[in-house]
UniProtKB/TrEMBL annotation:
Keywords: Repeat. It comes from the Eukaryota. PPR repeats lie at residues 168-202, 270-304, 371-405, 472-506, 508-538. This is Pentatricopeptide repeat-containing protein. The lineage of its organism: Eukaryota, Viridiplantae, Streptophyta, Embryophyta, Tracheophyta. PROSITE patterns: PPR. GO terms for molecular function: mRNA binding. It comes from Heracleum sosnowskyi. InterPro entries: E_motif (IPR046848), PPR_At4g14850-like_plant (IPR046960), PPR_rpt (IPR002885), TPR-like_helical_dom_sf (IPR011990). GO terms for biological process: RNA modification.
Length: 704
C-alpha cells in the first residue's frame, strides 16, 4: 500500500496531459485515497493547470471533508489563472465551512487587487481586525498595504503600516513603491529618508529601484546621484535591474555623460539596458549616437524589441534621416514588429517628419488595428506636410470609423481649415467642438479664433474670445494675432495693453510675436519698435529670429537700415529670413551696398530661397547693373532654384477657387484678366509706376 502511494505521488508529479491525469484520478478513487487531502489537492492543482476548471471544481465540491489547505489550493488555482471573481465567490462560501487562515486572506486580497475591488478589500480588512493572530501577521500587513496602494488609497496604506511597531524592510518598501507608482515621488523619497535615517532599516534592491524611479519622475539628478552612491556602498552596483533604473534616470534628466559612463562599465547588459541607452541618445539630441548604438547592438546579436525600434525611429525623426528610417522599417518587418500598433505609429510619425507622407499613408492603410493615437498622428502629419485637403478627408474617415479625436487632433484639423480658408468648414468644426466638449480646452478655442481669423471672419473670432471667461496667454495671443491678420494693428495693440494692464496673464514670446506682426502689417513702426524694447527690457524675454526679423522689417520701412544692421549684429545667430527681411528693405530704399552684405550672408548660409536672389537682382536692375543681374540669374540656374509660387484662395458661393501668379487654368480666366487690365489702367491713371526689372531679364526670371 505504501509502495502504491509512493508510485501515485511520483506519477502525479510527472503528469503532463489530461488523459494520464484522468487515469491516475481513477486509480486514486479505486484505491480509496481520494479523501486524503494530499491527493485531492494535487488533483485539483493539476486539473486547473491543464485548464480543466470544471472537473477541478466538481472534484472540490464532491470532497466530503475540505480542510483550509484544500480551500487554499482551489483559491490559489483560480488566482493563478486570474479568475478573480470566482476566487472571491469561493472565499465568501468558505466562511460557512472553514475559518480562513492568513494564507487564505492573502489569496483573497490578491483577487481584490486584480479586480481593483476596494470595497471587498475593506470587508476583508474588517475581518482581519477581528482576528488578532492574523492582524499581527506581517504578510497580511503587506497584502493590505499592496491592496490599498494598487487601488490608489495611500492614506489607508500608511494607516496599516503605522499599526506595526517594528515594520520590516518589505513593509517599508511597499509604502515607498506605492507612493512612487501612484505618482507621488516626493512622498516616496520622504518615506525612504525616514526608513534609512530614523528607523535605520537597510533598503533592499526593490526599495532602491523605486527610489531611483522616484528621482527620475522628479527629474532630480542630484538626489539620483546620491542614491547611486548609496547602492555602490551597499554593493548593489552590479545588479542589472538597478543599473537599468539608473540608466533610465540619467536618460530622463538629460545626463548623457553619466549614462554613457555607466553603460560603458556595465558587466552585464540585457535588451532593457541597450534600449535605455538608445532612448537616452535619441531624446537628448544625439541621434547619430543612438543609431550607431543600435547597429552595435545588432552586431552583438541582441534582439531588438518594439521599444528599441521606436527609440531608433525617434532618432531618425529628430535628424530627418529618412535613409536610416527606412532601414529600421525593414528591420521591423524582419522581426515581425512592423504592424505592432506602437511601432506602426512611430513609423508614420517618422515618415511624416521626414517629408515622406506617401509611405506613412500606405502603412496606415495596411494596419489591421488603428487606435485614436495613430489616427491623430496621421492627421497631424498631413497638416504638417501642407496636405490640408487630405487632412480633412482623414478627419472624416476617422469620425466614420467611430474614433473620437482628442484635443491635439482638433487643433491640427482647425489648422488645416485655416490653411484652406474655408469659412463653412470652420463653422462645421466649431459645432463639433461644442458637441465634443472641447470648449474648455484653451488650445482648441485658440485654434478656432485663428481659423475664423484666417478664413476672414474676425467677428466670429471676437465672439469666441468674448465667451471665454478664463483666458490664458494662448487665447489672448490668438486674438491679438487675429486682429493683426486683418490689418487692425491699433485694435491688436489695445488688446495687448488690456491683457498686460487688466489681467493677471503675462505675455510670452508668442504674444509679442503676434503683436509685433500686427504692427508690421498695419505699418505701426514706432509702436512696434517700442514693443520690442518692452519685451526685452521690462518682460525680460529673449527674442528669437522671428522677433528680430519683424524689427528689422520695421526699421527697414523707415529707412533706418544702419540701425537694423546694428540689431542684426547683436543677434547670436542670424537666420536666412532675417537677412531676407533686411534685403527686402534694401530693395525698397535702393541701398545696393547693404543689399550686397545681406546677399553675401545669405550665400554663406546656403539659403536656397530663390526669392532672396530675385530681390538682389531687382536692386542691381534699379541701378542699371545688368552684369550683376546676369550673374545672379546664372547662380539661380546653377543651383536649380525655383521660385515657389504663392497660392491665393477665395471662397465664393461655397466653392473654393485657388490661383497662382500668371494662372490661366481657371474657367473664367478671360473675365478675370479683363478686370485686372481695367484695374491696371486705373492705377496708371492715378500715377502708379510699377517697379520692374529690364523686360529681357523679367522674361528670363519668369522662365527660371
Amino acid at each position: 500500500m505504501k509502495r502504491l502511494a509512493q508510485s501515485l505521488a511520483t506519477s502525479l508529479e510527472a503528469c503532463s496531459n489530461v488523459n494520464s491525469l484522468a487515469k491516475l484520478h481513477s486509480i486514486i478513487i479505486k484505491a480509496g485515497h481520494l479523501e486524503d487531502t494530499f491527493y485531492a489537492n494535487k488533483l485539483i492543482a493539476l486539473y486547473t493547470k491543464l485548464s480543466h476548471f470544471t472537473i477541478a471544481r466538481k472534484l472540490f465540491d464532491e470532497l466530503p471533508h475540505r480542510t483550509v489547505f484544500t480551500w487554499n489550493s482551489i483559491l490559489k488555482c483560480y488566482n493563478r489563472d486570474k479568475r478573480f471573481r470566482e476566487t472571491l465567490c469561493l472565499f465568501s462560501d468558505m466562511g460557512f465551512e472553514q475559518k480562513p487562515d492568513h494564507g487564505t486572506i492573502l489569496l483573497a486580497m490578491k483577487a481584490c487587487v486584480g479586480l481593483k475591488s476596494l470595497k471587498f478589500g475593506k470587508m476583508i480588512h474588517g475581518f482581519v481586525k477581528k482576528e488578532e493572530v492574523i492582524d499581527s501577521n506581517l504578510f497580511v500587513g503587506s497584502g493590505l498595504i499592496d491592496l490599498y496602494s494598487r487601488c490608489g488609497v495611500m492614506s489607508d496604506a500608511v494607516r496599516v503600516f503605522e499599526e506595526y511597531s517594528e515594520p520590516d524592510v518589505v513593509l517599508w518598501t511597499m509604502i515607498v513603491t506605492g507612493y512612487e507608482q501612484n505618482g507621488w515621488p516626493r512622498e516616496a523619497l520622504g518615506f525612504f529618508a525616514r526608513m534609512v535615517n530614523v528607523a535605520c532599516v537597510s533598503p533592499d534592491q526593490v526599495t532602491l529601484i523605486s527610489v531611483v524611479s522616484a528621482c527620475a519622475q522628479l527629474l532630480d539628478l542630484k538626489a539620483g546621484r546620491k542614491v547611486h552612491g548609496l547602492l555602490i556602498k551597499m554593493g548593489f552596483d552590479s545588479r542589472l535591474s538597478l543599473v537599468n533604473a539608473l540608466l533610465n534616470l540619467y536618460a530622463k534628466t538629460g545626463s548623457l555623460d553619466d549614462a554613457t559612463c555607466l553603460f560603458r562599465i556595465m558587466e552585464e547588459k540585457d535588451v532593457i539596458s541597450w534600449g535605455s541607452m538608445i532612448s537616452c541618445y535619441a531624446h537628448n539630441g544625439a541621434a547619430k549616437e543612438a543609431l550607431d548604438l543600435l547597429n552595435k547592438m545588432i552586431f552583438e546579436k541582441v534582439e531588438p524589441n518594439a521599444v528599441i525600434v521606436i527609440s531608433a525611429l525617434q532618432a531618425c525623426e529628430a535628424n530627418c534621416n529618412l535613409k536610416e528610417g527606412k532601414k529600421i522599417h525593414q528591420l521591423a518587418i524582419q522581426k515581425g514588429l512592423e504592424l505592432d500598433i506602437l511601432v506602426s505609429t512611430a513609423l508614420i510619425d517618422m515618415y511624416m517628419n521626414c517629408s515622406s507622407p506617401s509611405e506613412a499613408v500606405e502603412l496606415f492603410y495596411r494596419m489591421p488595428i488603428k487606435d485614436e493615437v495613430v489616427w491623430s498622428t496621421l492627421l497631424c502629419g498631413c497638416v504638417q506636410n501642407g496636405m490640408a485637403h487630405k487632412s480633412m478627408a482623414i478627419f472624416c474617415n476617422m469620425l466614420s470609423s467611430g474614433v473620437q479625436p482628442d484635443g491635439i487632433a482638433m487643433v491640427k484639423i482647425l489648422t488645416a481649415c485655416s490653411e484652406l480658408g474655408i469659412i463653412q468648414q470652420t463653422l462645421c468644426l466649431h459645432g463639433y467642438v461644442v458637441r465634443g466638449g472641447f470648449e474648455n480646452n484653451s488650445f482648441v478655442e485658440a485654434s478656432l479664433i485663428e481659423s475664423y481669423s484666417k478664413c476672414g471672419s474676425l467677428d466670429n473670432a471676437i465672439k469666441i474670445f468674448d465667451k471665454v471667461t478664463d483666458r490664458d496667454v494662448v487665447i489672448w495671443s490668438s486674438m491679438i494675432a487675429g486682429y493683426g491678420i486683418h490689418g487692425q494693428g491699433r485694435e491688436a495693440l489695445d488688446l495687448f495693453h488690456l491683457m498686460v494692464n487688466n489681467s493677471l496673464v503675462k505675455p510670452n514670446s508668442v504674444t509679442f510675436l503676434s503683436v509685433l506682426s500686427a504692427c508690421s502689417h498695419a505699418g505701426l513702426i514706432e509702436e512696434g519698435i517700442c514693443l520690442f524694447e518692452e519685451m526685452v527690457n521690462e518682460h525680460r524675454l529673449t527674442p528669437d529670429s522671428n522677433h528680430y526679423a519683424i524689427v528689422v522689417d520695421l526699421l527697414g520701412r523707415t529707412g533706418e537700415l544702419e540701425k537694423a544692421m546694428e540689431i542684426i549684429n547683436l543677434m547670436p545667430k542670424v537666420e536666412p529670413h532675417v537677412w531676407g527681411a533686411f534685403l527686402g528693405a534694401c530693395t525698397i530704399h535702393h541701398k545696393t551696398e547693404l543689399g550686397e552684405v545681406a546677399a553675401r550672408n545669405l550665400l554663406q548660409l546656403h539659403s536656397e530661397h530663390a526669392g532672396y536672389y530675385i530681390l538682389m537682382s531687382n536692386i542691381y536692375a534699379a541701378d542699371g547693373k545688368w552684369d550683376n543681374v546676369a550673374e545672379i540669374r546664372n547662380l539661380i540656374k546653377q543651383k536649380n532654384m525655383k521660385k515657389v509660387s504663392a497660392v491665393s484662395m477665395i471662397e465664393a458661393n461655397s466653392e473654393v477657387h485657388s490661383f497662382v501668379a500668371g494662372d490661366r487654368c481657371h474657367p473664367t480666366t478671360e473675365n478675370i484678366y479683363m478686370l485686372l487690365k481695367k484695374l491696371e489702367l486705373n492705377m496708371v491713371a492715378e500715377g502708379y509706376v510699377p517697379n520692374v526689372v529690364s523686360p529681357h531679364y523679367a522674361e528670363e526670371f519668369a522662365s527660371s
